[in-house]
Design brief:
The complex is a heterodimer of chains A (about 450) and B (about 725).
Chain A lengths: L6 E6 L2 E6 H5 L6 H6 L11 H6 L1 E4 L3 H13 L10 H11 L2 H8 L9 E7 L8 E4 L5 E5 L2 E5 L9 E2 L5 E8 L2 E6 L9 E6 L5 E5 L1 E3 L2 E3 L1 E9 L4 E8 L4 E7 L5 E6 L11 E5 L4 E6 L8 E6 L4 E7 L16 E5 L4 E5 L5 E5 L8 E2 L20 E4 L2 E6 L2 E6 L4 E7 L6 E7 L2 E6 L4 E6 L7
Parallel strand pairs in A: 1-3
Antiparallel strand pairs in A: 1-2, 4-33, 5-6, 6-7, 7-8, 9-10, 10-11, 11-12, 13-14, 15-16, 16-17, 17-18, 19-20, 20-21, 21-22, 23-24, 24-25, 25-26, 27-28, 28-29, 29-30, 31-32, 32-33
Helix pairs in contact in A: 4-5
Chain B lengths: L23 H17 L8 H13 L3 H25 L4 H23 L1 H10 L5 H14 L2 H19 L6 H13 L2 H30 L2 H22 L4 H15 L2 H5 L6 H6 L3 H11 L5 H22 L7 H21 L5 H15 L5 H16 L5 H17 L3 H17 L6 H15 L1 H28 L31 H17 L13 E7 L5 E7 H9 L5 E3 H8 L3 H12 L7 E4 L10 E4 L9 E3 L10 H30 L1 E3 H12 L7 H13 L3 E3 L6 E4 L2
Parallel strand pairs in B: 2-6
Antiparallel strand pairs in B: 1-2, 3-5, 4-5, 7-9, 8-9
The chains are: A mainly beta (about 450), B mainly alpha (about 725).
């Protein structure tokens, strides 16, 4: 049998495979197959070229999985036979160092209008979930009471992070390996606050400290936000001696970098939502469920410690009626220089960031036809943006809005689990957490295929 | 019956867990450890990658990642200690080569080890936040080799020594150097900087400080700069050849500091070869080199500029105050222009047309041109000369160039009004004598003056041109109205000049001969008939006449003379001999002018149509004149010029100066009034400042004069002093 140039033969677990060097080049040098064929491991090849070409590489692994992965290298597509468990394939892909290729073949770049429901994962935790957050690599974590359950991109559950019965307020990923958790302080214990945990082992890596006038104080940390360009972490903080404000830490050193004390008239320590705006180099703070004051949304500039823009419902809440539109969630859209808000009727509203005096311009086009009275089981609506698309959760579905006028283009809904209490977009996936049953949905964009 | 043997049941403990071979991890590690040894011993051909990879995989899978990792660190460290010994043992020149060779081997081995442990890198290393294998290998190399006490200093000294050798002209192995610096870079920027770059910069600094000292003692400035430039280029080339690109600004900064910044004062002032000599000798190449090199250090250009300025001012001052130069105004201006051209060229070719240098040049010229109060007059004379005759046959573009250059000098003048005064006089002479070469050139200069100084400055000059044009039309109209009658009388060409536009010369009209007077009266009648309410006076001192003369020997000539001369000559139609006194009585020509006029008629060789008795240069009242019968000339047309001083004589100069001062008074007063009208109240200093600003386009008013004008305005009750604060002035309206 004359083997042509660049042909390579494998014996995987007793079964012979033949392929070409070009196909294997798709695996990359930093994969097991790339190293196997590298010159440094085949010193004779250059001397006796022909003989080496006929040589057979033995690999002591499952031939069935190898066939699937070889097909992936040949075509860029992944076809898993029905009798092959996905986890088995993933394990083999990890052995060969081909997980990245597998992941790329599974789902494509995120597009809100092409999402498909790929999985619904049931957790074992009782009670309502607090929050769900998507990780940068396609994994996610779900906060329930004092526990955070961590899933990797294969949706395999890792060891949960347990906070010793402290209530978790917010979670977020620094990177695929590190999860930041903010927790409520328990009176008399001096714990709570905020820490970084390993997503794979669940171990506490670092605790963030807050010091006021060179004195370390315990605190309750609320909403989180991450600065992408300067590696900062922001969190709303409530200290015991009225030390309310926004704390800032360095992601790399973990040290406190700054503290923005709450100025009168702006509630920052109770904030429900923080969002770092990279273009404007400022932080959006939204306090929508205040205990005493009015709803407040503001933009903070940390360089000169100023509130450069703010909005409050102080004027409008004079006529307290049930029908009054209350702002329940807010998100800044930097490109259109506005803040998008949503009310209890799932109406979208917009506040112009360019003027300081403007009120909420409620959008009638996105108003839902079946406006029903807020029922007993519904959750508060949430908002998110991704690549110029706006997402809004309502009851048991998520609406996708596009374009400069924010036209409703898609709705994501499934039949069970109850209304959606939180959702998150990241790692090219959308995760939606339901409130009635402890289950979350995973939505992906299918990879674009030829033909 | 057989006794049944009771057997005790032995219940074995249920093995709920199949233990792996307890020595499994140890065994597997031994295999991997052996492989690592073989790899370092260049014996890897017998190893199976698949087997090793699988073993490492299994160890991680069975939670022996920690053991694998720590084993790797121990084994690699052991090998690096071996390597370090073999490098230490290398003698002399072989040291660096051995280091380089071992580095190559280590990276190769490291890559193979990373291949085997790839699975650990992906899983165990990331989740336990350890250093990845390759990076670990580099760190171990750094700690065990590069920073080991026996190698660190030796390596640094060897590298620095080689660079020193190269600087002194020896050829070194650049490839080896490149590999070594690349190794340091691969180990991290901080390693490169601390273990090489910083000491390298220090050594370079002391090398160049020594060398520059040596150069400056034995080289002249140009030579020194050449050497400095070469050193700079060498260092840049060195960086591109075998150092990190980021080192370039640092090392050039060292060279710049040591070779240029520390010596630049000494360099520019160097005797016989410094900046001044370069400027004097137009050494463009050296100047350009100095400009480029000094531009690299702070204050470098400023140093050149300041020295150039002081030199320029010095030479310029000598030029404009040299009494020899004052004798020839045209040459004086030409020298200024030449100086300007010289420096323009230097700035353009050597100084990259640097705006700051151009400004320095301009301010220097402004400074020294105004040191001589006669500069405006001289510049006007230069223009006169150029537009008078020198531009004949020169094309338009060249005319423009000359005019532009003149304008440039004009811009430097502070007393622009004096220039205007002289220019008007000179222009009037050119226009009236019909000697202007090109109307276009004249007008072009006026347009330039207009753009420079505004409409006011040139409106009178433009009026002069208009007068010339309308005069032509008037004459045509005059002859048309007279018909053929005119042919019998002398032909008359009258230029009607508007009073005020032209430089007024208060001269009493002379007695015109009867022949002319008749035509003149006809013209006066015609002109006053067409224009009502005007007054005509004859400016006989400015006209010319063409006379046909027949001499005793029958020779006929056409004489081109001035009006005064004509008057004198026509007297001889009716008399043979006349004394100077008689002529003066007959013509009423001012005696000063008459003397000049007689001088030109009798004392200039080849043009002496009159004979004077006694034959002397000077004219006395009793001298007798008669027609020179023996006059001969090979020309038919003879132009008899007037003996006039081209330059102004001293009293004339004083007069002009006085007149200018007189003219300035109303301008200064107008400016003061404008300022006060806007301000209502202002103190003395502010008034002076504002007035100076308003007038500087025309001249620089003297504060003393302004003070006097203010006093005068107070007397005339336009202003008053403030009662409380005597420094304040109020506007009264």
């Amino acid at each position: 049998m004359a083997s042509g140039r660049g042909r390579i033969r494998f014996n995987v677990g007793g079964k012979i495979f033949e392929t070409t060097a070009t196909t294997l080049a798709n695996a990359g040098r930093h994969s097991m197959l790339g190293a196997l064929l590298d010159d440094s491991w085949n010193p004779r090849q250059t001397v006796e070229g022909e003989a080496a070409a006929n040589a057979e590489y033995f690999i002591d692994r499952s031939p069935a999985c190898f066939a699937v992965l070889l097909d992936l290298l040949r075509t860029g597509e992944l076809h898993v036979p029905p009798n092959m468990p996905e986890k088995l394939l993933y394990r083999e892909a990890l052995f060969y160092g081909l997980l990245d290729q597998v992941r790329a073949a599974l789902w494509g770049p995120f597009d809100g209008n092409r999402l498909q429901l790929v999985d619904s994962v049931s957790g074992r935790a009782p009670g309502d979930g607090t929050a769900i957050r998507a990780g940068p690599d396609g994994g996610c974590c779900v906060a329930h009471g004092s526990m955070v359950h961590v899933y990797d991109w294969m949706l395999e559950e890792h060891r949960p992070i347990s906070l010793d019965y402290q209530q978790v307020n917010d979670v977020g990923y620094i990177d695929a390996e590190s999860i930041v958790i903010t927790a409520r302080e328990r009176l008399g214990k001096g714990d709570g606050g905020m820490g970084v945990f390993s997503s794979s082992t669940g171990e506490l890596r670092h605790r963030f400290r807050v010091s006021h006038y060179d004195q370390v104080k315990s605190f309750t940390a609320g909403a989180l936000s991450f600065g992408s360009s300067d590696y900062k972490i922001f969190a709303s903080c409530k200290g015991r001696c009225n030390e309310y404000g926004i704390g800032v830490w360095d992601q790399i050193t973990g040290q406190q970098a700054d503290f923005f004390y709450e100025p009168p008239g702006c509630s920052l320590g109770d904030a429900d939502k923080l969002q770092w705006l990279d273009g404007d180099k400022c932080l959006m703070v939204a306090t929508l469920f205040p205990r005493t004051d009015n709803c407040f949304i503001g933009l903070l500039d940390f360089r000169d410690k100023g509130v450069i823009w703010s909005w409050s419902d102080a004027g409008t809440s004079v006529s307290l009626s049930l029908d009054e539109k209350r702002v329940l969630h807010a998100i800044a859209i930097e490109d259109s220089r506005s803040i998008c808000v949503v009310n209890q009727y799932d109406d979208l509203g917009f506040i112009d960031l360019r003027s300081n005096a403007g009120g909420v311009r409620w959008s009638s086009r996105s108003k839902l036809t079946n406006r029903k009275a807020p029922n007993e089981e519904s959750c508060y609506p949430k908002l998110a943006t991704h690549n110029g698309q706006l997402f809004s959760s309502m009851n048991d579905g998520i609406s996708v809005f596009c374009g400069p006028e924010w036209v409703l283009t898609s709705t994501l809904r499934r039949s069970y689990g109850g209304s959606i209490c939180d959702f998150s977009i990241g790692g090219d996936r959308l995760f939606a957490l339901h409130s009635e049953e402890n289950v979350f949905d995973v939505w992906e964009t299918p990879p674009s295929r030829f033909i | 019956m057989s006794a049944q043997k009771k057997r005790n049941f032995k219940i074995e403990a249920f093995k709920h867990r199949v233990d792996l071979d307890p020595k499994y991890a140890e065994k597997t590690w031994k295999v991997l450890e052996h492989a690592i040894h073989e790899i370092y011993n260049h014996n890897a051909s017998g190893l199976s990658f698949e087997e090793l990879y699988r073993n490492a995989y299994n160890m991680v899978l069975h939670k022996h990642g920690e053991k694998l990792y720590s084993g790797l660190v121990t084994t690699m460290t052991w090998h690096l200690k071996e390597i370090s010994q073999s490098i230490e043992a290398a003698q002399g020149d072989l040291f660096l080569e051995e280091l380089n060779r071992k580095w190559g081997e280590h990276t190769k081995a490291l890559q193979m080890i990373r291949d085997i442990l790839m699975y650990m890198d992906r899983t165990f290393v990331t989740s336990s936040r350890k250093t990845p294998v390759y990076e670990l290998g580099l760190n171990l190399w750094r700690d065990n080799i590069i920073r080991s006490s026996k190698i660190q200093d030796r390596q640094l000294n060897t590298i620095l020594e080689l660079i020193h050798k190269e600087r002194t002209g020896e050829v070194i192995n650049r490839g080896l150097m490149r590999n070594i610096t690349k190794m340091l870079m691969n180990l991290g920027t901080s390693v490169y900087q601390e273990d090489f770059e910083k000491p390298f910069l220090d050594v370079s600094a002391s090398f160049y400080s020594g060398e520059s000292q040596q150069f400056i003692e034995c080289c002249d400035c140009g030579e020194y700069l050449k050497k400095a430039e070469r050193r700079l280029n060498e260092e840049m080339e060195r960086v591109s050849q075998y150092l990190d690109a980021k080192t370039e600004p640092k090392i050039t900064c060292v060279v710049e500091k040591e070779m240029i910044a520390n010596h630049m004062k000494q360099l520019v002032h160097m005797e016989n070869s410094g900046l001044v000599n370069m400027l004097v000798d137009d050494r463009y190449e050296d100047l350009s080199r100095m400009y480029n090199l000094f531009g690299r250090v702070t204050e470098g250009h400023r140093l050149i500029r300041d020295l150039m300025t002081s030199h320029l001012r010095e030479t310029g001052k000598q030029l404009v105050t040299d009494p020899e130069r004052l004798k020839d105004p045209v040459d004086f201006v030409q020298r200024l222009l030449d100086e300007k051209d010289k420096y323009d060229k230097i700035i353009a070719t050597a100084f990259n047309n640097d705006k700051a240098f151009q400004n320095a040049l301009n301010s220097s010229f402004e400074y020294f041109i105004n040191l001589n109060s006669r500069s405006p007059e001289f510049i006007s004379l230069y223009v006169n000369e150029k537009l008078h005759k020198n531009l004949k046959g020169v094309n338009e573009e060249d005319v423009e160039i000359v005019l532009d250059k003149v304008m440039m000098l004009f811009r430097y003048l502070q007393e622009k009004d004096i220039f205007e005064k002289y220019y008007k006089q000179h222009l009037a002479k050119r226009l009236l004598s019909g000697k202007t070469v090109s109307d276009d050139a004249e007008r072009s200069l006026i347009v330039k003056l207009k753009t420079e100084c505004g409409y006011q400055f040139t409106c009178k000059l433009e009026g002069m041109f208009t007068d010339m044009k309308t005069s032509q039309d008037t004459m045509q109209g005059f002859y048309a109205s007279q018909g053929f009658e005119a042919g019998e009388c002398p032909t008359l060409a009258v230029q009607v000049l508007t009073t005020g536009s032209w430089p007024t010369q208060s001269s009493a009209a002379c007695n015109l001969p009867a022949e002319i007077l008749g035509v003149c009266d006809k013209f006066r009648a015609y002109y006053l008939g067409t224009h009502s309410g005007r007054r005509l006076t004859w400016q006989t001192n400015m006209g010319t006449a063409d006379l046909k003369a027949t001499f005793a020997n029958g020779q006929k000539h056409e004489l081109n003379v001035s009006t005064y001369q004509m008057c004198v000559l026509l007297l001889f139609n009716s008399a043979d001999r006349l004394s100077c006194k008689e002529i003066e009585q007959a013509t009423v020509i001012p005696s000063q002018d008459l003397k000049r006029c007689l001088q030109s008629l009798a004392c200039v060789r080849g043009k002496n149509v009159l004979r004077k008795d006694p034959m002397s240069k000077d004219i006395a009242e009793d001298d007798i004149f008669s027609v020179n019968d023996k006059f001969t000339s090979k020309f038919f047309k003879i132009k008899i010029g007037t003996v006039i001083a081209q330059k102004e004589s001293e009293p004339e100069k004083q007069e002009t100066r006085q007149q200018v001062e007189e003219d300035r008074k109303p301008q200064i007063e107008a400016a003061i009034i404008r300022v006060m009208k806007a301000r209502r109240v202002a103190d003395y200093n502010n008034i002076v400042m504002e007035v100076t600003k308003q007038l500087q386009l025309r001249f620089l008013p003297n504060p003393v004069v302004i003070k006097k004008r203010i006093e005068s305005l107070i007397e005339r009750e336009f202003l008053e002093r403030d009662e409380g604060d005597r420094k304040l002035y109020r506007y009264l309206a």
